[in-house]
Design goal:
alpha/beta; elongated; M1 Pyruvate Kinase, Domain 3; Pyruvate Kinase, Chain: A, domain 1; 3 domains; TIM Barrel
Length: 477
């Protein structure tokens, strides 16, 4: 099951991909990580899906990552008399704490925290920005707004506040319950929605306690403004372009995507680019040229993974969507310009032994045109540091921990094999050569470079390099 590309593919599961046979087809077509969206999934269904994926993992002998995406708090209007009301540009419109049904002049906003957070001049976006309001007067239980973009307001439509930091947690009660269920099911990554501040990540990490890695979904302007602080605490980032495009001008989103991709590269943390990548494939067997270019841009930028949402969850062509993304990634990574861009973005190594070793391994592997960089990694940190360097040869990560292999499924260029830890340096080199040969990364007579930490099994102790020939005996088991 060796991939012929470095970028990874995340596929969302849903009605179109809800049985084991389809999930297996998606994996074989190129999916490396499966996303379970808790906005549309019950906890019982979550457990069923995890069991299916683990069964496929066992059958195919490859670690598969599972990403659970929490819903996050949902800010919504109350109800309206008759179900809806039209508002015109320039109208005055009041939002208050009165639960009575709304009309064309007022509506119930059942979130008292919002009233404390808004100020005159702040914007409110209703129904994904279809109606835009500007606050003219703010009181503890009532705000008066001016209608900037006219339209229809209807029952329970979503409210976004791009200018206001709302003083509540990114984890609603449902999210806490879903998170515990996901952790108990043994998932690998949790994506956190509605992040506004680094404290939101810290709160989630207190609950996960290392049982899953935390991915920060960047979907609000407040998070963009504090990106470096959030990156310090998060294990990975997701560029949630759909919500970002609602809460900030659309023309700013591509720049934020580039900023996040490069920050992830500099810090050695995975970045997933998400939303509407092959949107037309929900109903069409082929994507548009613009969508192909969009995926290609993310690959050229060096994103760790690209994600399919409705395309694989509810579309008519889920397998075709994964296969198309797979082909795009393979083609772009073989383009002569690709390596020029990737090399130009290389960051200066951090002043740590692990980074110095990873940088040296990349330099040696590229200079000597080695067949593979083989990393022994218990926690995954060695593989992450090597992946940060974006070496030309493939990265083969050897780990005794299946949980590590699953988490590395989202990381650029890493092919993880689960094997018992090395007993000594000879065993380390011998098995690195054998596995590189067996997995199809090296042929007899080629050389690989092995990266490890001594003493073995010590997390984060990357301190050794060895170059070795793959002998003909590597074909033996």
């Amino acid at each position: 099951m060796r991939r012929l590309r470095r970028a990874k593919i995340v596929a969302t599961l849903g009605p179109a991909s809800s049985d084991a046979a389809m999930i297996a087809r998606l994996f074989k077509a190129g999916a490396d990580v499966f996303r379970i969206n808790m906005s549309h999934t019950s906890q019982d269904r979550l457990r069923e899906l995890v069991a299916m994926i683990r069964g496929i993992e066992k059958e195919l002998g490859r670690p598969i990552g599972i990403l659970v995406d929490l819903q996050g708090p949902k800010l919504r209007l109350g109800t309206f008399t008759g179900g809806s009301a039209m508002v015109a540009s320039g109208d005055s419109f009041v939002l208050d704490c009165d639960p009575a049904p709304g009309d064309a002049t007022r509506a119930f906003l059942p979130h008292p925290e919002i009233f404390a957070a808004v100020a005159p001049g702040h914007t409110l976006l209703i129904d994904d920005g279809k109606v835009r309001l500007t606050v003219t007067q703010a009181e503890p239980k009532r705000m008066t707004t001016r209608v900037e973009v006219a339209g229809k307001l209807s029952d329970r439509k979503g409210v976004s506040l791009p200018d206001s930091t709302i003083p509540f947690s990114a984890l609603a009660e449902k999210d806490r319950s879903d998170l515990e269920a996901a952790l108990n099911a043994g998932i690998d990554w949790v994506a956190l929605s509605f992040i506004q501040r680094p404290e939101d990540i810290a709160e989630a990490k207190k609950i996960t306690r290392g049982r899953a890695a935390v991915m920060a979904k960047i979907e609000k302007p407040q998070a963009v403004h504090r990106l470096s602080e959030i990156m310090d605490l998060a294990d990975a980032l997701m560029v949630a372009r759909g919500d970002l495009g609602v809460e900030m001008p659309l023309e700013k989103v591509p720049g934020v995507q580039k900023q996040m991709t490069r920050m992830g590269r500099a810090t050695g943390k995975p970045v997933v680019v998400a939303t509407q990548m092959l949107e037309s494939m929900i109903s069409s067997p082929v994507p548009t040229r613009a969508e192909v270019s969009d995926v290609a841009t993310a690959i050229f930028e060096g994103a760790d993974a690209v994600m399919l949402s409705a395309e694989s969850a509810a579309g008519k062509y889920p397998v075709e969507a994964v296969a198309t993304m797979n082909r795009i990634a393979e083609e772009i990574e073989n383009d002569p310009v690709y390596r020029t861009i990737i090399d130009a973005q290389r960051a200066v190594p951090e002043a740590t032994g692990a980074d110095a070793i990873a940088d040296a391994a990349r330099h040696i592997a590229d200079t000597l045109d080695l067949a593979a960089v083989v990393c022994w990694t218990a926690s995954g940190s060695t593989a992450l540091r090597v992946a940060r360097e974006r070496p030309r040869p493939p990265i083969v990560a050897l780990s005794p921990n299946i949980a590590t292999g699953r988490r590395l499924a989202v990381v650029w260029g890493v092919h993880c094999v689960i094997t018992e830890d090395a007993h000594d340096q000879d065993d380390m080199v011998d098995r690195a050569c054998r596995i590189a040969f067996k997995e199809g990364f090296a042929k007899a007579g080629q050389r690989v470079i092995t990266v490890a930490g001594v003493p073995f099994g010590t997390p984060g102790a990357t301190n050794m390099l060895r170059i070795a020939y793959v002998g003909s005996e590597a074909a033996g088991d």
